[in-house]
Design goal:
CATH class of the largest domain in chain A: Alpha Beta
Helix content of chain A: 25-40%
Low-confidence stretches of chain A: 476-482
Largest interface: A-B, 93 and 93 residues
Number of strands of chain A: 18
Protein name (chains A, B): FAD/FMN-containing dehydrogenase
Keywords (chains A, B): FAD, Flavoprotein, Oxidoreductase
Organism (chains A, B): Blastococcus saxobsidens
Number of domains of chain A: 5
Cofactor (chains A, B): FAD
Strand order of the largest sheet of chain A: 15-12-14-13-17-18-16
Oligomer: homodimer
Largest sheet of chain A: 7 strands, antiparallel
GO molecular function (chains A, B): FAD binding; oxidoreductase activity
Shape of chain A: globular
Chain lengths: 482, 482
């Protein structure tokens, strides 16, 4: 085993001068995440250009007993790609592995390296008349490798599924430095255990994903969008049922927002306005899509809204009449996260419950939060069609930031306890990373955690692959952290 | 450790008199598969009625060092649910676990026990105005547990995915007799390693699936079906592209058949006739579906066929004009497997290649097969939209059955070698079971097999859970078989 001090020079052998950063000034952007929420130190940042170089880096670090922290676009929300502050870990950035290795519109697949930015995949698909449907706020900078490592979600899940569902094959460098070539572009393959699903969503703790074969779909050629005002979350759930019954699987988006969420956007984002005259407690943005260019979606959407009015489900609605208005309505949805930052600390929670439990869940959670911090401003919004709410919290108006930060953990417990009581998940689409790795132990079955630890031990017996992430500390001891 | 002779009485304690069969006459139907292709012997057949009873059976057998063979509807094609002929294994049938535990049309999920027959799931969904889209020939007798264990496919995969894609949560009894409750009905859940995908497709070698939460979809309310004659597999691939471009994801079925396949059905099935006057080398059955009741699918399909004629892709076509004609066309497709049995031994191969490779793959494989056995009758058909062909073989007309059976292994090698040369899979939707467990070693990456063995060892260190299936024998020794 080499001394840790030798590691940079050994890594230089593995990736060459172009792939190694050891100057602290140059390492900076790899050692702080985009929100400045997480930061760390590193012995080096390596940027391999090929899968073989990734394997060489992993072997070098394993031989030296040094931990590796894989990193994509550095846009995660749970600190999953940040090193610790020991300065002894090595950050393995995939940002030089940006090749679209091939696209096959007949097979409806694209093969990409882990460092390809999500938007580049969407564009490569569009250039062939196809759709790659994963879509999220950070699509201009997040990478396929990160999308895979966190099983990313976003607004397209309702119709197309999570990243996991969009993946046919993977190439992975395992913690022993060997390369598993599972880059199969097959729709059906039943020849043993499905390994790819182990690495998807494992946040780099079982190996480094270096490439993937992803599914493509027929391009969507027409859309219709409506902004609907509703009296309650129950009405939103009822509206999903109405739209499903009348429009079937043309339903491609269904996003809910509380009035509080919309108020923040109206206050802090330039160029937006309330699409409706009166104030309503809840809104949904409904989107239909069709692969036909002239699919009569506007009429379908209006028929669904008609039914919703008749049944007293909807209070008011606007159907967007052109692409400018569509952008304006989506702006209200997409502006929430940023607008909330103007109102003090944003305590973010990303949870799922069964769609049918949403009304009772929101009522119970809101009540408990108001009891814990009277006047708290609850910024609830998200992909309600998937049962996924971003249950974000802002301090009572005019109160102290630090007082609010001081109760962050208590409020998270309120949200998670409520989620758990409805058989929900405390991380819908952001993963566990470092921020939720310990709290998960209180919400996940102990036997399931034991099975997860067994898998970690099997694939990474030395505990050198992204330690300190996903798996809870045992007995409060950071066993795997180095 | 108890003597094996005591096992039946211990099992009686676990499942009661009603759940235990030891009389050889009564065990018969559990010890021979539906085709009479595989048979075995058993110390007992146990039929637990609850998950807790399944766990008690597994613990009892583990303590006694006796192997357990989980069994669903006994309709598999690779012998995956058959015991060996030692008479020492215990068959664990899930056929008494037939409860639909709950259906939630708002959440679009159904929770079912492993012994529920696939058709009963389809019917439970339909009663709520929903669709459960898995559809296969044996749906009247195969069970959800078997569908999960083999990651079943069928004709709906093109639009809805394999069984794996239709599953949100699982309940599993592991080889140590503990119950993992992963019965979550969530569309998004990113809280650690995804365990369910390990058990799906593992053919009962990592544990016994006892229940599942499955996805539902909006019901399909209109369909259009066409029978299209084509000059070549390339034309079939071109036709997929045309239909996708014009009909988008309304395309729900795309099945190819060689003329040889159709000839066998016309010769041996009552009440079918050739829908077209002339003879053509290839046919596809195209199906469009829509969730709207009056969706104009007939016009769309005709427009796609028009384009196919103009581009010389299609030679002739019939659009079905009513449900009787739809049934007649599907009868030609569904009758192939049975009709082939009248022509001597059927050597069956279930393979996938990328859709774009189908034309070259068929040409290369047919040439090699004709070279190996001149005059061989090649019954190629299947789900070409997924790249999945059933490459079945019948002897040359008038030749000897045994001569043909004698070259079965050689011919399988021809098909598999060709499949492998196009980066395909030698088992698309039937699994490995016992029939393909050894041959897979020649087609799967050795490292991948090593990782599979590691997982088997982790979950089932005693090798008592469905031994002799999926994993290749090591060095020709049936290490795990008891």
């Amino acid at each position: 085993m080499s001394a840790v001090a030798d590691v940079p020079s050994l890594l230089r052998d593995a990736v060459g001068e172009a792939g190694l950063i050891t100057d602290p000034a140059d390492m900076g952007r790899y050692l702080t995440d985009w929100r400045n929420a997480y930061s760390g130190r590193a012995a080096a940042v390596v940027r391999p250009g090929t899968t073989e170089e990734v394997a060489a880096v992993v072997r070098t670090c394993r031989d030296a007993g040094v931990a590796v922290v894989p990193q994509g676009g550095n846009t995660g929300l749970c600190g999953g790609s940040m090193p610790d502050d020991s300065g002894r870990q090595v950050v393995l950035s995939l940002d030089r592995m940006r090749r679209v290795r091939g696209i096959d519109p007949v097979n409806q697949t694209v093969t990409v390296e882990a460092g390809v930015v999500l938007q580049a995949v969407q564009e490569a698909a569009a250039a062939e008349g196809c759709l790659f449907p994963l879509s999220l706020g950070s699509e201009g900078s997040c990478t396929v490798g990160g999308n895979l490592a966190t099983n990313a979600g976003g607004t397209g899940v309702l119709r197309y599924g999570n990243m996991r569902d969009l993946t046919l094959g993977l190439e992975v460098v395992l913690p022993d430095g060997r390369i598993w070539n599972g880059l199969r572009g097959l729709r059906k393959d039943n020849t043993g255990y499905d390994l790819k699903h182990l690495f998807i969503g494992a946040e780099g703790t079982l190996g480094v994903i270096t490439a993937a074969v992803l599914k493509l779909f027929p391009a969507v050629r027409s859309r219709a969008t409506a902004w609907v005002a509703l009296p309650s979350p129950q009405a939103a759930v009822d509206l999903i049922g109405i739209v499903r019954a009348l429009c079937g699987d043309r339903l491609t988006g269904f996003e809910i927002m509380s009035r509080q969420s919309v108020d923040f956007v109206l206050a802090h984002r330039a160029g937006v306005r309330d699409p409706l005259d009166a104030v309503h407690p809840w809104y949904v943005l409904v989107e239909l899509g069709d692969t036909l260019p002239d699919a009569g979606l506007g009429g379908l959407l209006e028929a669904a809204l008609e039914e919703a009015f008749e049944r007293d489900v909807a209070a008011d609605a606007v159907v967007a009449s052109g692409s400018a208005q569509v952008a304006e309505l989506w702006g209200l949805r997409e502006g929430i996260s940023e607008a909330q930052n103007f109102e003090g600390p944003s305590l973010k929670h990303d949870v799922t419950v069964p769609v049918s439990s949403i009304p009772a869940f929101v009522e119970q959670t809101d009540r408990a939060l108001q009891k814990a911090v009277p006047g708290i401003r609850i910024v609830t919004y998200g992909h309600i069609g998937d049962g996924n709410l971003h249950y974000n919290l802002s301090k009572p108006a005019g109160s102290d930031d630090d007082d609010f930060r001081a109760v962050a953990e208590e409020l998270a417990r309120v949200v998670y306890d409520s989620t758990s009581s409805f058989d929900g998940s405390i991380s819908a689409e952001h993963g566990l990373g470092q921020s939720k790795r310990d709290v998960i132990a209180d919400y996940k079955d102990a036997y399931e955690l034991e099975l997860m630890r067994g898998l970690k031990q099997l694939f990474d017996p030395d505990g050198l692959m992204n330690p300190g992430k996903v798996l809870p500390r045992e007995d409060g001891v950071a066993r795997a952290e180095r």
